[in-house]
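Subject: complex prediction, re-run

Hi both,

The earlier run crashed halfway through, so I resubmitted it with identical inputs.
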Amino acid sequence: MTVGLLAVFPENPSVDMARTLDLSGYSWKGVGGADALRRLSPATGWAGAIVGCDEDPESGWAICRALRRLEQPVQRILVLVTGAQIGDLEVRDDMFDDFCLSPFHPRELEARLRHLFFHELKAVDSAVIEHAGLRLNLETYQATFDNHPLDLTYMEYELLKCLVREPGRVFSRETLLAEVWGYEYFGGARTVDVHVRRLRAKLGEEHAHLIETVRSVGYRFGSSKWSG
Amino acid sequence: MLEQQRDYVLRTVEERGIRLVRLWFTDVLGNLKSFAISPAELENALSDGMSFDGSSIDGYGRVQESDVLALPDPNTFEVLPWVDSKSAEARVFCDIAQLDGSPFEGDPRQVLKRNLKAAQSRGFAFYIAPDIEYFYFAPGSTGAAPVPLDQGGFFDLTTTDITSSLRKETIRTLETMSIPVEYSFHEDSPSQHEIDLRHTDALTMADSVMTFRFVVKEIAAMRNVHATFMPKPMEGVQGSGMHLHLSLFKGDTNAFHSSEDPYNLSPVAKSFIAGILRHAAEITAVTNQTVNSYKRLVPGYEAPVHVSWARNNRSGLIRVPVPKRGSELATRIELRSPDPACNPYLAFSVILAAGLRGVDEGYELPLEADANLFEMGDAALAKLGVDQLPQSLNDALRVMESSPLVAEALGEHIFEWFLRNKRAEWRRYKTHVSQFELDSYLRSL
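This time it finished cleanly. Structure:
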């Protein structure tokens, strides 16, 4: 995934918000106000922002305004509003790019963010993906770990590619099945488990943990601060 | 997707400097067959197949026309990990087809695919996890008595033991070839080992069993050790079996599981078990295909002798293991008769056909036989309605011969060739005068 750092307001977002962002693999930082926004901004600027206007609308909209006025104006802003605040949106169309009703459903927020960052997520800078010692060359189909070749079958390679492209994101078995095997595949999501076990065996005992099982959700490549 | 898979294979051959690609397939008796092609021929092989003369392959020959096509299955392409990287080699499993592209009826892999398709049309995917036993012996000439390499017992920690390091290296090699191992240990008998493979779909597992037998023998041979899957290599000690843990899945649901049943068995599981039990004698010639196989199926060595099932009884044909609590994906049945000398494609085919027949026709599950059957007399067993498995290859062939179920599962070509070949094997055995006879009769009669 090539989405950069996201600014999140309020500084300490709800547990649901933190969990949704972590499970989806976004990197983010909580910001308490416009000052912090400038102080904490990464050198390349914020990649986007999620602003809660549901609890403290005044500060929330102030953040949105500040985001648009930064030296590197933030182009992708998602605001959270309650059903009663929908009217507020009408006069502020320029201050956000998408919104989500609060309280939000994690799947909805995830889908909206995915859509908002669609281009960044799909764009791959180069033909090489590298993460935690693993290197996939998409042009030559070759995988190496710590510079040693990793011999994979086609399906193992495709599965690993899918996971490694978005490190930290939790993929459900169904998503992996659809993306790697296609919808018409007969074997069911159990196939995914079988191939994950094969990949782990090939990565070896020391590195098998790189493909993590997230209980009753699915799999993730690379660790996250949120342990499911 | 096929196009991408071919690209993947061709590109890998180029990038990894593969010098030789081995095309693997299996004869009717379950022997691994192989011929090698150069990378230059591979592209053509992947798109059009490689034709070869099938008449030299056991069970392939036909009268009129003997050329067949080997069609590589690109998803089984693997670099061989034990070959030096300077002369790197890879292997790929092949389906065998007629020259017009239709499946060749003598190819065991095509037979299994056909049977799996029949299961698929009922919505079922067939999963298998085998526990494979084998022996390591000192190298010796053909016909000489086997010499075990150690005297270790069940679960013995024989750290200095060469066979343990062989087993370890074998497992490492298997895992780099996409065959994950669940457990491994030293078995009951001297030099006997067991490696349990993790479940996968039946076709992949049949390929894996072929690879497994090859890897075990190859790694042993590199250390001048002889590994054997002969079912009963030594008199008086336990033989080698290949217990199969079986389950059917419907999508992501285990069709064998029901939380309402005290044994967690669904109606599908029960009639599948009933199907295997009712047709057990008919399929035994395929799951236990050598004269020697029947020397393993005797009382007292944890091998099944009777056609029965139970939850916790290792003397029965089918055991229903108690899965870990709440783990409904793990509900399965364990078929204990097959031995590792079988042809896995054909064995899986007839087992599936027997089980599915039970499901299709709603066979009723007989009563559980939880007593130790080894200790019961024939009269008591007859009272329970418990039959014996065939006692010899000859017995097994006679039952198989009149089985429409096995004929249909294997197809006429293999069914007839198998019976003919195995009857000849039995005749050779029958005319052999054994040491037992010389010892017993030469002086006294």
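The mean pLDDT of chain B is 90.

- K.
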